[in-house]
Write a structure and sequence with these properties.
The protein is α+β, with helices and mostly antiparallel strands. The chain has five helices and seven strands; from the N terminus they run E-H-H-E-E-E-H-E-H-E-E-H. Bound molecules: coenzyme A.
Amino acid sequence: MSVEAIRKIEMRAAAIGDITPIMELVNELAAQGAMLPRSPASIVEKLRDFIVVLVDGEFAGCGALAIIWTDIAEIRSIAVEPRFQGLGLGKKIAEALIDQAEELGLRRVMALTYVTGFFEKLGFEVVDHGSLPHKVFNDCLNCPKFHKCDEVAVVKVLKVPEIEEDIEAGLMPQPGRPLKA
Ligand SMILES: CC(C)(COP(=O)(O)OP(=O)(O)OC[C@H]1O[C@@H](n2cnc3c(N)ncnc32)[C@H](O)[C@@H]1OP(=O)(O)O)[C@@H](O)C(=O)NCCC(=O)NCCS
């Protein structure tokens, strides 16, 4: 498929009818080693985190934004159908999720990924896993690669200075930091 052949690109919140296409795409790409698999239950339970992209009405890709804590969200399960890859859809999905994070007032957005270059083009920087809050790794307990994680952590800092001030002032809950009375 070429960009010229596309008539309409649509992006929207995922709905019940998207569960099967999301599951099939993510797990097909996971079977090729491109990303981590997701259980049907985790997609159903987290469906509200997902957006989908449609090309001329056909499911073409997905991505999810999971809020981890008051200052950070994670981009998860970003995937484009192989025949639609390389057309800018992955970038559109990632940018839409970054916009959501910004609108929510989050300070940082992160991802654990094998496609570091894709995220670097979107302004993410590679960081040590240890620099991220422990809560990011809660889901890793169920991951088959728990003891040999080979994903790279990437972070993009967003511009929401007033939230930063609240965190510094102790008005926002942060793990391990007491709230000021
Ligand atoms: C990674 C993926 C989501 C990218 O989506 P896509 O629609 O193919 O990518 P786009 O066409 O939007 O590319 C946007 C930019 O990223 C670059 N890019 C895309 N894939 C890349 C990769 N694997 N490595 C480095 N750069 C990449 C493109 O060259 C393009 O650069 P440009 O803006 O300078 O032209 C898609 O290829 C995919 O589904 N891969 C398999 C699953 C996967 O790896 N998911 C990520 C899990 S975190």
